[in-house]
Amino acid sequence: MRILIFGAGALGSLVGALLSKRNEVHLLVRPGHAQAIREAGLKIEGAVTETFALETHIDLENVPQPDIIFVTVKAYNTKAALDALERLADNARIVASLQNGLTNLRLFQTSLPDKAVMGVTSMGATLIRPGRVLYAGKGDTTFGHLANDPELSKEAADLFNQVGLNARADANIESELWMKGIISASINPLTAILGCQNGQLLEDEFALGVSHLACSEANEVANEIGVQLPPGDPFMKVKDVMRATSQNRSSMLQDLEHGKRTEIDEINGEIIRRATAIGIPVPVNQTLRALVKCLERRTV
């Protein structure tokens, strides 16, 4: 199977490396990352310690036609990515999102309703430096096809399971996307503001309290707009992810550390937008977004 990872940062590089055990994988990456991988391979450490030889590209000009495309760009770059991928996507069987944020669903629905598969993962990955990624936490991945074609979502899940990554197909992918969004909204901004690993939130009663409030607000919004979340207490799931990815530095924290724009508007910002539309107050999510935006202005 020929696979293209479009926008391979920490998570995309990790997924591409592991999938390359049984597939031909091409990474579309930034020039520095590409050069490091070409010179010494992609080094994964943590839950897996191994070096992978992968094909890298800094543009799409010479990328061979893939069977499956995984989009792993930042949520605010999704539309640009889908526009750039139009030619390759037309001839691919599956175009799958493995991204943060709550805004990707409608963009994939508009561009690729028949072949888009949405993915939700709790895997933790940190880009230590170009060519080197920390696999900071194993996690489950769920795929769902937007037109509810079980074969396509199952094919994506099978690719993961074949290389030891726990994955499944689920017809109600919107539910999973919202649960992941709630988890991200309850963890990522706090780690970005406090400059800490995910697991450190469990050790601070005040941070945990804020996380609980953010989760409760987002859960109320999801319920009010008719999203049926997976069974179980949402905040228990938040804490489960904190434990499972305890050594991980969230993507939002990594973005601030590297002077990059965060996905706060596509995570907490989308929860705020939905809440405003239906008249529900979400002051904790608004405060977290405001604080992260302040930090962005200092670093970006």
**N-C termini distance:** 38 Å
Main sheet strand line-up = 5-2-1-6-7-8-11-12
- Overall form: globular
Mean pLDDT: 95
How many beta-strand runs? Answer: 12
Task: Please give a structural write-up.
This protein has helices spanning 10-19, 31-40, 78-84, 86-90, 104-111, 150-162, 173-194, 205-224, 234-244, 251-257, 268-278, 283-299, and strands spanning 2-6, 24-28, 42-46, 50-52, 55-57, 68-71, 94-98, 116-121, 124-129, 132-137, 141-145, 167-169. With 300 residues, it is α/β, with parallel strands linked by helices. The protein is globular and about 50 Å long. The chain folds into two domains: 2-171, 3-Layer(aba) Sandwich (Rossmann fold), CATH 3.40.50.720; 175-299, N-(1-d-carboxylethyl)-l-norvaline Dehydrogenase, domain 2 (Orthogonal Bundle). The model has no long low-confidence stretch (mean pLDDT 95). The strands form two sheets. An eight-stranded mixed beta sheet has the order 5-2-1-6-7-8-11-12, with helices on both faces. Strands 4-3-10-9 form a four-stranded mixed beta sheet. 47% of the residues lie in helices and 19% in strands.
